[in-house]
Amino acid sequence: MRREAFILLSACLMSFGAGISAQTIYSTLKSFSNLTYFSSSVDDANLTATLSDPSLNLTLFVPSDAAFTALENQLNVSGDVFFAPSTAPKWATVLKYHFISPSTLTGNIANGSYTNAYGGTSLKITKGISGNATVNSTVFKIAGVGSDATIVQANISAGNSTIHIVDSVLLPFYANISSGLSRNSNLTTLNKLTTTLANNTAFLNVLGNLNTEYTVLAPVNSAWSNQDPNVNATLTNYVSSNVGLAYLWNYHLIPKPVVFDPAKFFNASINQTTVSVTTVSGLSLTLVREGSVTTIVSPNGNATIITSFNVGLTSSASYRTAIHLISQALVPPVPRSPREVFSLRKDIGNFLSVLGNSSQASLLDNPWFVGTILAPTDAAFAALLKQYGYTLEQLIAGSSGVNELINLHVFKPAVSLAGLANGLTNITVKDGNVILKANKSSSTGSVKFISQGSSANVVGVDYYIGSVPFGNGTFIVIDAVLLPTQFDIGSGSGPKMAPTPLTLLLSTLFAVSVLRFFEKL
Q: Which superkingdom, per the lineage (predicted)?
C-alpha cells in the first residue's frame, strides 16, 4: 500500500515538474495561433532543437501567417517551398535572418544596424512617431536586404528571449533584379539610368520579372567614369538613348546557367583561372581568377567583382539570379558600321550577301548610319527560298523585287525594342498605306514585325550602331523574311503572292489525297 502511494506521489511530482518547464522561443511560437507558418517552418527546417534551448538570449522578429501568405505572391512560389522535406531545410537561412542578439524590448531599441544573431546581413531598425497631437504611438520598422517589416505586436516574453510580431517576411535576398537596383545604395546610379528606359519596356519587364534567371554584373556608383576620355565619350553616348543604354545593359547580363559564387565561373578540378563568357548582347567577356579576386576583362577597361547578392526563389528553394557588384562599368565596343554588326553573328550571312549586292550596299560601311536594319536569319532565308523555289543566287540577281524586300528590312528612323510602346506601332507608311508595323506584348515584352505579306519575331536583342557622336542606328535579328503583298525577284516569272494559310491547308489536303490514292493501287 505504501509502495503504491509512493509511485502515485512520484507521478504527480513529475507531472507538476513538466508543467513548469522553462519557457522557450519554440514553445512560445507554438502558443500563438497566428504564427503557425513560422513555427511549422521551424519544425520542417530542423530548427526545433535550436529554438527549444531555454538559455537563448535573442530577439526574434516573427512574421505573421498573413505575411507568409503574401510572400507566396511576392516570390511567385507555392507555400509548399516553406514546408516540403526537400526544400524546407534550405529555408532555414531565411528563418534565422529574423534573429538579433541580445533580447531587447522595444523601449530599449535605438535607431541603427543590428548584427544578425546567426551571422547574416545586418538588419536596420528605425523608429518614428505616427498619429496626431492627441494620440500617437511609436512605429518600429525593420529593413532587410530584400524587404521591410513593421512591428505589429511587441514585447512577447519567450524565456530569456523576446518576440516581436511583424507584418512581412524579412528577406536576405532580393525578390527580383529591379528590387536589387532600387534597394542597394551602391547601385543608385545604375537604377536611375535604368528607369530612364521608361515604363513597360521589354527590358524593364525582364528586370522586374520574378522568373528571370541571369548573372548580373552591376557597376557601383563610383564605376561610371573612366580615365580614358574616349571611353567616357562612348559611355556618355550609350546612356543618352534607349537603344544605347539597353545595349550597354545587355553587355552586363550573362544568360543561364546562373553563377552565384564568382569562384564557380572557373573549373577548379583543372585549376582553371581564365574563362570566356558570352553576354546577352552577343559579345564576349574574359574573366580571370587570381587568388580570391575575379577580374572581368573588356576591350575598354577591366573591373573586379566586389561582392555578390542572390535574387528570387524557385520552387526548389534555390535562388534564380545573381547580382555581382563590380568596380567599373563595362563599355562594349561600338560597332562603327552595319558590317561590323554582321561580323558579330554567324547566322545572318545570307542577308549580308543579299544586302551587299543591292542598291543599298553602301550603307554597310557607313560609319554614320542612322536607321534600323531587320536582319533575317539564314534559317529564315532557307525557308523563303524553299517556299518560292528560288536559289540564293537568283535572289541576289533580282532587281526591283529584291529592292522592295530590302526596303522592308532597312528603314528610318532607328527603332529600339526598349523604346517601342506596347501594342501595335506603325513603323513605315507609304502613300497612306502601312507597309510595316510592330506588335509588342505588354506581358512578355516580345516583339513581332508585321508586313503586308508576312510577319517575323525578334530573336535576341537589338544591337547598337553608332560612331560617336553622330551615328544612331539599330540592328535587330528576326526569324523570318518580311514580304510585300506580291513578291517577285525580277526573274520574269511574274509576281508571286505570299501563300495564305488556307492555300497551304488545301495544298496539304491535296497531297494527302494523292498519297492515299496511290496506296490503294
A: Eukaryota
Hey, what long-range contacts does 384-390 have (CB within 8 A, 24 or more apart)? 384/480, 384/481, 384/483, 387/499, 388/487, 388/496, 390/489, 390/491
Report the pLDDT value the prediction gives residue 106, as an integer from 0 to 100: 92
8 A C-beta contact, residue 307 and residue 216 = no
Q: Which residue has the cell 498573413?
A: 66
- Looking at per-residue pLDDT, the higher value among 440 and 237 belongs to 440
Mean pLDDT score, 112-131: 86
* Close Cβ partners of 128 (under 8 Å, ≥ 6 residues apart): 138, 139, 141
306: left (phi over 0), alpha (psi -120 to 50) or beta: alpha
Does this model's pTM top 0.85? My answer is no
pLDDT band at 471 (very low <50, low <70, confident <90, very high): low
**pLDDT more than 90, % of the chain:** 50
The 10s digit of each residue's pLDDT in 361-376 is 999 999 888 899 999 9
The one-letter amino acid at 425: T
Calpha distance 244→221 (Å, rounded): 19
E strand residue ranges, 239-380:
253-254, 274-278, 284-290, 293-298, 301-311, 321-326, 370-376
**Alpha helical stretches, state H, 20-122:** 25-30, 36-44, 48-51, 65-75, 92-96
C-alpha cell at 215: 548573372
CA–chain centroid gap for 127, Å, is 34
How many other β-carbons are positioned within 10 Å of the β-carbon of residue 398?
21
